[in-house]
Amino acid sequence: MLKTYNYATLKKQEIDSLIARNTDPSNAIQEIVDGIIQEVRTTGDQALIDYAQKFDKVALNSLYLDADAIDALAQTIHRDQQRALEIAFQNIHKFHSTQLRRERAVETMPGVKCWREVRPIEKVGLYIPGGSAVLPSTLLMLGVPARIAGCKEIVVCSPPQSNGQINGFVAYCLKLLKIDRIYLVGGAQAVAAMAFGTESIPKVDKIFGPGNQFVTKAKSTIQSLTNVSIDMPAGPSEVLVIADETANPAYVAADLLAQAEHGADSQAVLVATSQEIIDAVNVALAEQLPALPRRELAGKAIENSYAVLAADLREALAFSNSYAPEHLILETSDWERHTRYILNAGSVFLGHLTPESAGDYASGTNHTLPTSGYARSYSGVSVDSFVKKVTFQHISEVGLQHIGSTVEILAELEGLQAHKNAVSIRKS
Ligand SMILES: NC(=O)c1ccc[n+]([C@@H]2O[C@H](COP(=O)([O-])OP(=O)(O)OC[C@H]3O[C@@H](n4cnc5c(N)ncnc54)[C@H](O)[C@@H]3O)[C@@H](O)[C@H]2O)c1
Ligand SMILES: N[C@H](CO)Cc1c[nH]c[nH+]1
Ligand SMILES: [Zn+2]
C-alpha cells in the first residue's frame, strides 16, 4: 500500500526528503567500497578471488571464461530465447546506429576553419549486474553502442554464478557482440579491477554499467583516484508513474511492480490526479503482488515508495521534474500536450500501451539510465557515451590576416606575451 502525500500541502523540506534516495548518510557504503578498492589495488587478482568467495560464495579456478566456454554455454539456451535476444539486439542496433552523425566544418572567419571528428574511446569496461538477477539485456545495452562506436577493447565483468560460470543468455549476448572473454568478477571489486588493472584484468579508459549501491559508489570513487571516467551514476532502478482518470489502475500497478521487483532499494512512485486513482492502484497492487515470484523484494520496494496526489497533470509534472526519475511513465490519453513540460527524466514512456519493460528489453532505447536524481544533469547511455569528439582547426594565410590581431590583443590583455608572439612570428 503506497503512503499518500498531498502535493498542495507539502513544504519544500518535505519535497526534498521525498525526492532524496540512495544516500549514504553514515558513510557505511563508502567505507566498505574504499576498503575493497584498496585491497584490489594492493593484491590484484587474489583480492578478486577472495571477494568472489566472500560475496558470491564461489571458489574460482579461473577469473575468466574464454571463447570455447562461452560457445558451449550459449548453446544451452532455447531457439526462441536466442531469437528474442537477436530481436532485442537488432532493435537496439537500429536505434543506436542513427546516433553517429558527422558534423559539418565551420569557417568562423575567412580562412579559419574549425570542425569536430568523432573518435572511439579505445578501452571500455562494461559491468553487467548479476547479484539479485542476472541481466543479459544490460550486456546488449552496453555492448551494442560500444561496437557501433568502434571501441577497440571491450572488457566485460559480471559476478559469477554459484557454479563459477555465467548463464547461457549472457553467453549468447557475448556471441552476438563478438566478445570472446568475460571476467567473473562482480561488485565494487570489478569496478576497481577495471579502473586500476590487475594481473588478469586490463585497465580501461571508461567504465559503464548499472549496479547496486556498492557498484555505483565504486564508480563515483574511482573517478577521483584515477583518470578513468564513468558513464553516470546508474544505481537501483526507479520509476515514476503519472496517472490521471484515463489510466488503467491494473497497468499502473504492473508498471510500478516491474521496477519494484529489481530490489528492495528500488523506488516506484505514483503521482495521480485523484485519490480514487491512488486507491484503485493500491487495490491492484494488493492483487498483483502476491503472485510474483520476487514478491518479497517488490513488496519491500513498494513499502519504501509512495504516492503523491496532484491537482492536475501540470502539477504532477512539476513534482516529477523535481524527482528526476530514471523512468517516467505518462499513463494518460492526454500525453501529447504534456511532453514539452518534461524537463528531467532518463527515459519516458507515453500512453497506455507503452510498458516500461519494452524499453528495458527490446524497443531499442537504452536501459542504462541515471538514477537518484542524476537525470537532472546526465543522459542515459548512448553511442555518444563511447566516443570523444576531437576539435580540429586549420588557418590559412588569409585566415591569419583576419584573426591574427584579435588574438594578439587578447593575449596582451591577459599579459601572456608568448601567446602573442606565437601569432606575431607567423605574420612577419
Ligand atoms: N540504473 C540502471 O540503468 C539500471 C539498469 C539495470 C539494473 N539496475 C539496478 O542494478 C542493481 C543490480 O544490483 P544487484 O545487487 O542485483 O547486482 P550487482 O551485480 O550490482 O551487485 C552484486 C555484487 O554486489 C557485491 N555485494 C553484495 N553485497 C555486498 C556487501 N555487503 N558488501 C560489498 N559488496 C557486496 C557483490 O560483489 C556482488 O557480486 C539493481 O539495484 C537494479 O535495480 C539499474
Ligand atoms: N529496469 C532496469 C533499469 O533500471 C533495466 C532492466 C534490465 N532487465 C530488466 N530491467
Ligand atoms: Zn527493469
UniProtKB/TrEMBL annotation:
Highest taxon listed in the record's lineage: Bacteria
Catalytic activity: L-histidinol + 2 NAD(+) + H2O = L-histidine + 2 NADH + 3 H(+)
Gene Ontology terms, MF aspect: histidinol dehydrogenase activity; NAD binding; zinc ion binding
Residue runs in coiled coils: none
Enzyme Commission code: 1.1.1.23
PROSITE patterns registered for this protein in UniProt: HISOL_DEHYDROGENASE (PS00611)
Binding-site positions, NAD(+): Y127, Q189, N212
Pathway listed: Amino-acid biosynthesis; L-histidine biosynthesis; L-histidine from 5-phospho-alpha-D-ribose 1-diphosphate: step 9/9
Residues forming the catalytic site: E326 (proton acceptor), H327 (proton acceptor)
Top EC class for this record: oxidoreductase
CC terms in the record's Gene Ontology section: cytosol
Binding annotation for Zn(2+): Q259, H262, D360, H419
Cofactor notes: Binds 1 zinc ion per subunit.
Keyword vocabulary terms for this entry: Amino-acid biosynthesis, Histidine biosynthesis, Metal-binding, NAD, Oxidoreductase, Zinc
Name of one Pfam family that matches: Histidinol_dh
UniProt binding sites for substrate: S237, Q259, H262, H327, D360, E414, H419
Role of this protein: Catalyzes the sequential NAD-dependent oxidations of L-histidinol to L-histidinaldehyde and then to L-histidine.
HAMAP family according to UniProt: HisD
Family: Belongs to the histidinol dehydrogenase family.
Protein name, per record: Histidinol dehydrogenase
Gene: hisD
